[in-house]
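writing this on my phone so excuse typos. first protein, seq and then structure
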Amino acid sequence: MLVAAPETAEPDPHPQVDLTRLPNLYGATPRGESGHGKLDTVANASAGPRLRSIGLAVWHFVSGAPLTYIWLSVLMITWNIQQHLSHKQLHDLLLHRSTNIHALGTDPIHVLFSSLLWLDRTDFEPFEPFLVPFAYLLLFTVFLAPAEHWLGHLRWLLVGLTCHILATYISEGILYFAIEEHSASQRLVHSRDIGVSYFLVGVMAVLSYHIARPWRWGYLGGLVIILGVPLITMDRHELDFTSIGHFTSILIGLCFYPLARECGGPQWNPAKLKAAFGPSRSREASA
C-alpha cells in the first residue's frame, strides 16, 4: 500500500527579515535596545543645562562690566557711521573731536570726552573694516571688562579717565615744546589725535597688579616692550606724540598701586588655570 509523502512548503525566495534584530555592523546595538538611543537621550538632556549655564556665565560677565560694553557699543555705532562718510567728511568730523594743541586750548572738555567715542578709520585702512569691531571686542573683553570687575565701576572710570587726560596733556605738551623749539612741524598744532588707546593702556597697566607674581613681570614687560619700542625708534623731527602718550599711560596706570591694593581679591594665577585643566585631560586620556 502506497502512502503519499507529506507536502513540504517550498522556501520563500524573498524572506522577510526583522531588521530590528540584526546586529549593527559598526558595533552598535539595534534600535529599540539600550545603546546609542539612550546615550543620545542622555547627551541631549545634559546639553541643555550646559548651554544654559554657559549663557548665564556670559550674561553675568557682561552685565558685571556695564561701562565697558556700553562704551564698546557706542564705538561700534560711531564706527559704522564712519563707513558711510567720504574722506573729507571724516577728516572734518574727527578733527573737531581731536585732542590736538589747538582744540585743547579752545574747547578742552568737549574734545577730551568726544575723542573717547570715536576711532580713526585711517588707522585701520590696511585691514578690512569688519575686523575692527572684533579686535576691539577682544581687547575690551580681555582687559577692560576684567579690570571693571576687579576695580569696580567708579575706580575703573577714575583710572581710565586720569590716564586719558594726563597722557593727552603730557604728550601734547611735549609736542608744543618741540614746535616752539622748531624741532617739530607747525602743522601738528592741528593734528588728528582721537581714540581710546590712552584709557585702554592705562587700565591694562593697573591690571598688572591683579596678576600673581612672577607672571605679573612677564605681562608688564611685554606691555613695556610693545609700547616702548615705537617711543625709542621714533623720528625726532617728526615727533610721535601718540607713542609718548601710550608710554605715559603705562606710567600713570602703575601709579594707582595704592588704589589697586585696596581692591584686594584673589589674584589671577595662570598656574592655577593650568592645574584646573590638568585633571580633565588626564581623565579623558584614561577614558
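second protein below, same order as before
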Amino acid sequence: MRMDPPSREESTPAVPADVPIAYMRRTRDYYQALGYGAPYEWAHYIDVPFHRLSKPLFECTIALITTAAPYQPGKGDQGPGAPYNAMAKFFSVYSGDASVDHDLRIAHIAIDRKHTTGEDSGTYFPLKALRRAAADGRIGAVAARFHGAPTNRSRRVTLETDGPDLVARCRHDRADAAILVANCPVCHQTLSLAARMLEENGISTVVLGCAKDIVEHVGVPRFVFSDLPLGNAAGRPNDPDSQRFTLELALGVLEHAPASRTTVQSPLRWSGTPEWKLDYCNVELLTPEQIARERAEFDEAKRHAKRVREEADRRPDNAADPRAGRFGAP
C-alpha cells in the first residue's frame, strides 16, 4: 500500500511535546509517586540476534503473536472502553486457529484508556489483514495458529517458560517468520524478549509497537514504531487503510532490514496535535488526592490479579488454558 507524500502543511516543524513518550521514565515516576519500592529494571541487551529470511516473502509462512486475551463471558467488562480488568488475564501461552475469526480483547492490560478504547481489534490483532496478505500473494501463508503471550513482569518466566513455549509452537507450525504485536508497556518487553528467542531459533521477526523506548532498550532485530496511543500498534481504529499500511510496513521490514536494531517509524499520526502524549502515567498532572485514589485502585487490582492467578494455578489443565498483567503490578 502506498502512502502519499506529506503536504506542505504537514511538513511544518513539530512542537516540543511531539516526541515519542518516554514510557520507562513515566511508569517509573508514576509507581514511585504511588509509594511503591525500587523502580522496575527493564531488560536490556547489547547484542541482538538477526536471522534473515531464507526464502522470498511470498513463499514464507508467517505467524502472528499477540498479548490480547480471548473474551471470557462472566469475567467482567471487557468491551470497548472497559476499565482495567484483572479478571480477564491469562497466565500461559495459548494458541488459536488462524483460519477463522476470534474475539480477542485488551481489557486486561494497560492501554491508553484516556485516548483509545480497544473497540477495533484490527488495531491490536491484525489477523484478518494478515490473511488478506496471504490471499493477495504478498506472503506465502498464515501459520496454522496464532499465539497469545501472557504479559509478565518477570523476565525469568518469559525467558524460561513462555518464550520457549512460543518458539516450540512456531516451529511446530513451520513458521518462517513472526509478527509480534505489543499493547501495554510490559507487553513490549515480553514480545521483544520473545522476538529475540525466535530469531535465535531461526525464525525472523518484526515487533509492532507504540513504546519505542522499551523495545529499543531491550534490543530487537526489527521494529515498526507507531507513534499512537498504546493499544494501536497495528494501525488506527476504524481505519482499515492505516491497518493495511502498518502491516505492509512490517512485511517490508521483514524483507529488507539490513541488520539488527532496524527501526522503521510509521508516518501515521493520531490527531492534529500531540497533546494526547502528555497524559499517560504522568504524575505531574495528578493531585495528591488523585495519587491516593489511584494507589487504592491499583492495590485492589493487584488483589484481583492475585486471585485470578491462584485460580489459574489450581486448574490441572492450566498450561493449555487460553483463559489463564495491567502494566506490571509491583
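The radius of gyration is 19 Å. thats all i got for now
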